[in-house]
Amino acid sequence: MIKLPEPVDQIVVNLLKAANTKLPQDVGWALEAAAGWENDPMARTQLGAIMDNVKKAESLGRPMCQDTGIPIFYVKGRFDSSIGAEIRKGLKKATEIIPLRPNTVDPLTRRNPGDNLGKGMPVIHYIPTDDVFTEISVLVKGAGSENMTRLAMLNPSDGIEGVKRFVADSVLDAGGRPCPPGIVGVGIGGTADECVSMAKEALMSPLDSDNGDPVLKELEEDLFVRLNSSGLGPMGLGGSTTVLGVKIRSAYCHTASLPVAVNIGCWATRRAVARITDNNVEYGQGAEL
Amino acid sequence: MIELRTPFGEDAVRKLKLGDTVYLTGDIITGRDGMHERAIENVRQNRPVPEGIEESVLYHCGPIVARDGNGWRVVAAGPTTSARMNSSEPEMIRKFRIRAIIGKGGMSAEVGEAMSETGCVYLAAVGGAAVSLAESIIGVRGPEWSDLGMAEAMWRFEVEAMGPLIVAMDSEGNSLYENVMSGLIRDI
Ligand code: SF4
Fold it and tell me: Which end of chain A is more exposed for a tag (fewer CB within 10 A), N or C?
């Protein structure tokens, strides 16, 4: 067992508190930049209201949105199998003390245990590496945006144009439901399940991070410009601020497949990261998984 | 910017135009799926309903409310997705002459029809702006139908300068959502 400077359950409480009450800096900057270039007065009003709400949430230490969502955890680095139980303990604690809205229910009976736990909850992804730290990242996902998730198994001949079409339609058909402007997470390639996972993981990385692939980078920029020229605007009420960013992750896929997934993050794309070493815990609000 | 005070009648509602920004002061009630079903069922069965639904401003909201001494304090109160109430709302509007609905995401054409018939508008609150909206609530009474749970029960809020709220469906059957969706540029 690795000796940690702070118990993991407490670190998880800190992460959830930070994610829910403080918007990541890169998302805040993107909102400010958008407010600067937005011409539509109604859209400007709404962007102003969002930023105002973010400031109040941070200064009052309250969740910025009443849908405190479902947290998705990523554990990377060195760890042992006990960490899952510690994360669950931390989530239960956080639900009581922050407080978070108890959101998890049985999918069919809709029974709510009241502690954000339950079979399979929370989702924890494990990424073992040879690093000397343990990194716990959390992405807080509300239902408004998560419900707009889409996966398409395109034909390889649909190519890059097909990918663009599918991403654009997914975002525009969602309209105001995922509380735009937000971040569009895209997965390209892999298997069906891996593709959706990549789309979500893309939301963990800061908006200004570079995925190192010039083709993907160009695609991100192209989609960003096109989506913001669509006219959908904040909350789907019109304007030139529809997305704050597009983030893509990709993997090789079967020669007969072209999977594409879209997982939208709302303006309240809430994330937090703790990098834990033997004698220190460093907190941040974005991570490259 | 328009300052609107409750109570207001059909005339005030008919003056509001698509895209107007409104700040609301006065009394509003909350209602989600459960409250809608209960109210309609009671009317159909000739059973009484709580006071204050008639000619009200109805907020689609499931607030997080905490005990505060003998009263209540609203911790977070952002709008919920209004489309979930599409099927029951026309009857609500006609039966209770609801004057304004506050929510997010807009509602169906059938709801729009009922709104233009009786004189009602749809005000879009900024989705997720839960803290700011909660801060505009200066008084809480209730809940009625508490057996429905904290989120689904009917609360009475006194609000001061609640907003910005945007007139997204007017009393003439126009919808900003529809206008935006039909005018989207989808070029790739
Ligand atoms: S989509 Fe996001 S901002 Fe909107 S209500 Fe849901 S969690 Fe809140």
Answer: N
Q: How many CB atoms lie within 10 A of CB A246?
A: 25
Give the minimum alpha-carbon distance from B46 to chain A in angstroms, rounded to a whole number.
Answer: 31
Strands B21-30 and B154-169: antiparallel
Q: Is the CB of A116 under 6 A from ligand 1?
A: no
A32 Cα to chain B: minimum distance (Å): 16
**A222: nearest CA partner in chain B:** B188
pTM: 0.94
Any B CB within 8 A of A22 CB: no
pLDDT at residue B26, as a whole number: 98
Question: Which chain B residues have any C-beta within 8 angstroms of a chain A C-beta?
Answer: 19, 21, 62-64, 75-78, 81, 104-106, 124, 126-133, 135, 163-164, 166, 168, 176-177, 179-181, 183-188
- Under a CB-based contact definition with an 8 Å cutoff, are residues B107 and B169 in contact? yes
Give the burial string for A109-143 (b: 16+ CB within 10 Å, else e).
eeeeeebbbbeebbebeeeeeeeebbbbbbbbbbe
Q: Assess whether A125 and A247 both reside in one domain.
A: no
Q: Write out chain B's pLDDT in tens, 188 residues.
A: 999 999 999 999 999 999 999 999 999 999 999 999 999 999 999 999 999 999 999 999 988 888 889 899 998 899 999 999 999 999 999 999 999 999 999 999 999 999 999 999 999 999 999 999 999 999 999 899 999 988 889 999 999 999 999 999 999 999 999 999 999 999 87
Domain ranges of chain B: 2-170
Say yes or no for a CB contact (<8 Å) between B164 and A45.
yes
Q: Does domain B2-170 have CATH number 3.20.130.10?
A: yes
